[in-house]
Amino acid sequence: MPKKSLPILYSFRRCPYAMRARMALHYASIKCMLREVSLKNKPQSMLDISPKGTVPVLLLQDGVVIDESLDIIHYALAQNDPEGINQTNNEQVNQLIARNDTEFARLLRMYKYFDRHPENTQKEYRQQIELEFLENYEQMLGEKQFLLSTKSIADIAILPFIRQFAYVDEDWFFTSKYKNLINWLNMFTMSESFEHIIMAKHTPWQRNDEDVIF
Q: 21 burial class (0-12, 13-18, 19+ CB within 10 angstroms)?
């Protein structure tokens, strides 16, 4: 497929929303021209098509713009879903993702930047996350590989946030009691494709740069 006929993905490597979009696109074997974004110097070409200025942004060949990560996930699965994970898209999946994107994301910001939120200590924020989310995920995983009985959109959508949580205090997390959650996280993040494709490092894109194919 010629480069110019590929979709364009504006992304930021460490952003969990952009990460889950890349995971879905890679899973669906959808090739894109990847444009790594500097959040301090966002490219005008991205702002022209998505003025809200957040990543990810996917520009399709026909000019359609998809600038919400969940919409990119659903778009990718509609094109190609080799494992049939979209078949498990149900109310439970939607509720898990909704709570992740609101409550977990909010608590994660407080845990990471606890000095900006002095109402509680960092440990207290972590304990709140444990009580409201980690204990539930640990129980859900049980002897299973995935959050539900089979791989679902919930795994793709939630994993980047758990990864970000884990790396706030690696020593604590990876020696914690959440063994099922650690195994689940490692199963995804230690794969060849995650390390070398989804999380590959790229310099911020500038006009006239050579295209990077994702």
A: buried
Separation between Cα atoms, residue 148 and residue 73, nearest integer Å: 18
Q: Domain spanning 3-83+194-213: which CATH class is it, in words?
A: alpha beta
- Residue 80 confidence (pLDDT): 97
Q: 33: which residues sit within 8 A by CB, 6+ positions away? A: 3, 6, 7, 8, 9, 211, 212, 213, 214
CB 41 within 8 A of CB 203: no
Q: Give the residue-averaged pLDDT of 100-126.
A: 97
- What is the domain partition of the chain in residue ranges? 3-83+194-213, 86-191
- Domain 86-191 adopts which CATH fold? Glutathione S-transferase Yfyf (Class Pi); Chain A, domain 2 (1.20.1050)
Residues pairing with 58 in the sheet = 9, 66
